[in-house]
Amino acid sequence: MHTLNTLPFNNRFATLGEDFFQRVEPTAVEKPFLIHVNQQAADLINLNIESENNADLLAYFSGEKTFVEGDALAMLYSGHQFGHYVSQLGDGRAIMLGETNGYELQLKGSGQTPFSRNADGRAVLRSTIREYLCSEAMHGLGIPTTRALCMLGSEEVVHRERLEYASVMVRMAPSHVRFGSFEVFFHRRQFDLLKQLADFMLEEHFPECLQQEEPYVGLLQEVVTRTAKLMAQWQLVGFAHGVMNTDNMSILGLTLDYGPFGFLDSYNPDFIGNHSDHQGRYVFHQQPNIGLWNLNMLAQAMLPLLEADNPELAVEKARAVLQSYQPSYLDAFNSGMSEKMGFYAGTNSKEGDAELANNLLTIMAKNQVDYTIFFRKLADFKAYSSKNDSELRDLFLDREAFDHWAVDYRQRLIEEGSDDVQRKRAMNQVNPKYILRNYMAQIAIEKAEAGDYSEIDKMMRLLQTPFDEHPDAEIYAGHPPSWAEQISVSCSS
Ligand code: AMP
Ligand code: MG
């Protein structure tokens, strides 16, 4: 195990040179204090963060001190925001400190960079708590994501709709490279830099693609497959990202940049988490399509790599790869739904399973049934008797709609000779008991803003093992309180 003072650095991204980033030192926040450390993430870099002394944590992660062997930089990227190309974005408030044990350590909220445009480079406490908790919640749910290592508060005041305190978190990922990191070089027609970035990603993050005849096609294929799977995982757990701009899409297929996200409470495919998304571009049910739209933008940016001298052939190759998206997505979504409904994994999904899932989602939407609560309770369904059905059917206003569905579901379970006990065990491993509902984040935020940070640690423990029972936190497994509907989440962060 290392300490902060002995972390070994190997700054791979920095070797790309200054066409890809700008070197910049963090600007320390005023009067920082420690809010939380996450040993689970620290384990990934062999850091014993729980036994670190406070002074070192504050010095390194407030931005006051940089790692001697690190190489602090802000990454360049562009991207399509709400469908429109923006030619230069870049890390406006994130600074990568360096790479250790295969992970980039990034401060978020560490002050201005050459990419800040006129913004302050800071992040407010409220948005930092949301990102900190949600990245670990997603990891707990088995969904690829950037990780959260540590979180600091400060007495520095920043201006948003109101005055708020600045906060800093340390984010970790094997790579923070985004679709937009490729787009910027395509749109500037800097194809040599585009190639350099692709070669770097192949070597460091997709070495298996280098064995293929056409590594760049392989790279695009891998991103398509990972993104399709990620979108299915989001839909299956009821996660709405909120700002699926191409600068927030990870090349590694990680959930990246937690802003105005939201988990569904009642199942509502028309849910728009981001109140600034007036057109509803990133509405829940559109996420898989947006994933593909974004991949189209990436594929376009990679065209010069696919077939430099023959644009038509390049387009053909890109199309062929993109065509695999829909089947990959459907495959992941349908098999995920079969698991959620408790059908034996490994048995061929039967014809009609997708319809059964669709019918369920339709009546859940009509009846505004809580998505997470329903699937968790579905594990108690008895295949060979309807005596137990009432708890489930009571979740529906239209109880007959549930009864109709239950007839088909029961028949399907009987057909495969489903065992109630075994099925429940399996279902409880895929249907979480706990998700980070907006109101929960809100409770943690309001307490923190009043100086009590205890809820963050409590929720963290819960969300890191969301499939387990947590008797002391039963309240968070229930329906959200009525005030939850009033919570409004904007882009402001
Ligand atoms: P986001 O919507 O958080 O993904 O941010 C979009 C772009 O705006 C990125 O380039 C961010 O770095 C930048 N940005 C957002 N907030 C700030 C801020 N407070 N200071 C500087 N840049 C910011
Ligand atoms: Mg972003």
Overall 3D geometry?
globular
Helix share, percent: 40-55%
Order of helices and strands: EEHHEEEEEEHEEHHHEEHHHHHHHHHH
Cα distance spanning the termini: 35 Å
Secondary-structure-based class equals alpha+beta
Q: Biggest sheet, open or closed, and with what strands and sense?
A: 6 strands, antiparallel
Q: What is the overall number of helices?
A: 16
Radius of gyration of CA atoms, rounded to a whole number:
23 Å
Explain how this protein is built.
The protein is an alpha+beta fold and 493 residues long. Among the domains are: 4-173, no CATH class; 343-378 and 380-427, no CATH class. 40% of the residues lie in helices and 12% in strands. The protein is built from 16 helices and 12 strands. It has helices spanning 39-44, 54-61, 125-140, 179-187, 191-205, 215-237, 287-306, 311-322, 325-340, 353-366, 371-378, 390-393, 399-415, 420-427, 438-449, 454-464, and strands at residues 21-23, 33-37, 73-75, 79-81, 84-86, 94-100, 103-108, 123-124, 147-159, 163-173, 239-240, 262-263. The strands form 4 sheets. Strands 2, 6, 7, 8, 9 and 10 form a 6-stranded antiparallel sheet that branches. Strands 1-3 form a two-stranded antiparallel sheet. A two-stranded antiparallel ribbon has the order 4-5. A hairpin with a 2-residue loop joins strand 4 and strand 5 (84-86). The protein is globular, with a radius of gyration of 23 Å. The model has no long low-confidence stretch (mean pLDDT 97). The structure holds adenosine monophosphate and magnesium ion. Magnesium ion binds next to loops.
